[in-house]
């Protein structure tokens, strides 16, 4: 497979190595080939393009805005710890991967705020969380924060001053607020069985999923009053909730990995609905095209995209021919 360099243009089009202009919906991790690959074309008429030319195998990554990403390499053996890399020039033809010096090793989860200026890294092997600010041009790595238990979900505030983390420890779950704004202290927000997904809403409200009880609820004012309100449960179709997404109209989408559906909840009327998916939706991964999200990773099954720019449409992306 020939590596590809990308150049940003109007409407997320790119100039490829073969001198043709190609629209790009986003970039995703291909776990089979351990690479970053562009989604060439627009939802409903796209395919996975050739791997980006990187000097390491990729195990996971998170986009930072439109031109940068944090990627974690895939260790060559079981005794090696995964290294974090900062990739700039992602869509400008000057791809520049550099080790993110000072980052914790063995990162298994990455989350970023909407602008991509702050990212949070989590390593289960070291039980540590770490904030990286000033992204992408002036990356500053903070001191690691020790976390008891296992982190299953992270959502970063708009200003990057704190994050909500869902932690399971000894069979009990807690959502904490932590970061520079809390002096790196873990401040409890709410308790539950197994926090599997968190999405921020209107700045200081949070939607949280409990995988253990198949429930989704809203916590208003996570910094202050922390008022908890149930939104949906198994009776309304919640089954193995793996990810959450708040749409511009404030309705909430639930990736139900258990039932292979996407649930939708109106937080005011509590009316619910479901969309069947041919595959297992386990994420709402933001892409470059506004309103388009990856629902899974390519590999054993086709890559699924959710186009929420108008109606909710699920389409698949075939492999490069």
Summarize the structure.
This protein is mostly beta strands and 321 residues long.
Written account of the structure:
With 321 residues, the chain is an all-beta fold. Helices cover 0% and strands 48% of the residues. The chain contains no helices and 29 strands. It has strands at residues 13-15, 21-30, 35-42, 45-48, 58-64, 68-73, 84-88, 96-99, 109-112, 119-123, 128-133, 140-141, 145-146, 150-156, 163-169, 172-178, 187-192, 195-201, 205-210, 215-220, 227-232, 241-246, 252-256, 261-265, 272-276, 285-286, 292-294, 303-307, 313-317. The strands form seven sheets. Strands 9, 10, 11, 12 and 13 form a five-stranded antiparallel β-sheet that branches. A four-stranded antiparallel β-sheet has the order 1-2-3-4, with no helix packed on it. A hairpin with a 4-residue loop joins strand 19 and strand 20 (215-220).
């Amino acid at each position: 497979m020939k590596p590809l360099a990308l150049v940003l243009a109007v409407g997320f089009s790119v100039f490829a190595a073969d001198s043709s202009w190609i629209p790009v919906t986003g970039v995703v991790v291909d776990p089979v080939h351990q690479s970053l690959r562009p989604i060439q074309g627009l939802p409903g008429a796209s395919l996975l393009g050739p791997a980006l030319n990187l000097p390491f195998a990729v195990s996971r990554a998170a986009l930072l805005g439109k031109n940068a990403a944090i990627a974690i390499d895939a260790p060559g053996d079981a005794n090696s710890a995964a290294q974090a890399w900062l990739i700039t020039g992602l869509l400008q033809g000057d791809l520049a991967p550099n080790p993110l010096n000072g980052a914790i090793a063995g990162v298994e989860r990455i989350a970023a705020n909407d602008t991509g200026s702050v990212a949070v890294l989590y390593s289960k092997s070291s039980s540590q969380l770490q904030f990286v600010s000033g992204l992408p041009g002036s990356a500053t790595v903070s001191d690691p924060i020790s976390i008891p238990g296992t982190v299953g979900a992270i959502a970063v505030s708009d200003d990057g001053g704190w994050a909500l983390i869902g932690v399971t420890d000894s069979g009990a779950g807690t959502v904490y607020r932590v970061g520079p704004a809390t002096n790196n202290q873990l401040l409890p927000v709410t308790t539950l069985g197994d926090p599997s997904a968190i999405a921020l809403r209107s700045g200081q409200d949070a939607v949280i999923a409990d995988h253990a009880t198949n429930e989704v609820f809203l916590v208003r004012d996570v910094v202050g009053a922390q008022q908890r309100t149930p939104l949906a449960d198994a009776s309304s179709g919640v089954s193995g909730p793996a990810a959450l997404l708040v749409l511009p109209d404030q309705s909430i989408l639930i990736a139900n990995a258990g039932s292979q559906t996407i649930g939708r909840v109106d937080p005011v009327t509590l009316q619910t609905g479901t969309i069947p998916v041919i595959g297992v939706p386990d994420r709402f991964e933001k892409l470059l095209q506004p309103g388009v999200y990856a629902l899974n990773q390519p590999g054993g099954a086709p890559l699924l995209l959710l186009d929420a720019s108008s109606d909710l449409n699920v389409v698949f992306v075939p492999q490069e021919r």
